[in-house]
Amino acid sequence: MMENYRKARTVEQPSVCPFTSLPPDTPEVRVKDGSKIRNLLRYALSRMEAKPRAAEEEGRPTPEEGGMAVEEQQEAPGRPLCKQIIFTASGKGVSKAITCAEIVKRRMKGLHQLTRLLYSTVVEVWEPLEPAAGLDSLTVSRNLPAIWILLSREPLDSNQPGYQAPGRYDALWAQSTNREEGGGFTGQRPGHRRKRGGGGVGGGARGKGSSRQTGRSREAAK
Q1: Do the Cβ atoms of 127 and 6 come closer than 8 Å?
Q2: How far apart are CA 199 and CA 222, in angstroms?
Q3: Could you tell me which residues are beta bridge partners of residue 117?
Q4: How many CA atoms, within 13 angstroms, populate the side-chain half-sphere of residue 157?
Q5: Pair 153, 110: CB distance under 8 Å
Q6: Where are the domains of the chain?
Q7: Could you tell me which of 136, 111, 116 has the C-alpha nearest to residue 126?
Q8: What is the pLDDT of residue 43?
Q9: What is residue 31's predicted lDDT score, i.e. its pLDDT?
Q10: Is the confidence at residue 205, as pLDDT, over 50?
């Protein structure tokens, strides 16, 4: 039946922020599937850091990069810093919002996190391919998974569900480095080197076998 219809438009219903008692100037970064993480991070760090690393390392964005975050940053470069920021996304943009939040946490140590998992309503309007066939327009409502991530410089209520305290990543990176140096990922012992040319026990056995075979050939020739 749906082969007789085409999708005319998609409207996402506005969602209410699940975090209450936030300062009115708390920035809300809406992450979409087509958003560029580079632009999102530049905007987020410009609101949270005194000297945004993303803007310093990557320089001024080109016009074709676009993005709401870049345009807002250029319009008001001298705005006051914020103590909290929100990342929100729905559908395919959820994983990208999580990536942005994790990168910000690694660049800015000591951030408290509060996460909410909700559903966002999307309304799709389908129009018939042939209006003369007598078919009516269809309106379909779908629920998409949505995520809201709050990052805060100030401590949050640790009893709330979805709270995550500031973590230390030094131990994790040190453990990974030790595994790599110890051969944990290559399967070799520390300080062990493979001999070139296929040496070792196997090479010696093949050499002895070749000598015995040559001796038998000489005896057969006699």
Answers
A1: yes
A2: 34
A3: 147
A4: 6
A5: yes
A6: 2-32+82-169
A7: 136
A8: 94
A9: 95
A10: no
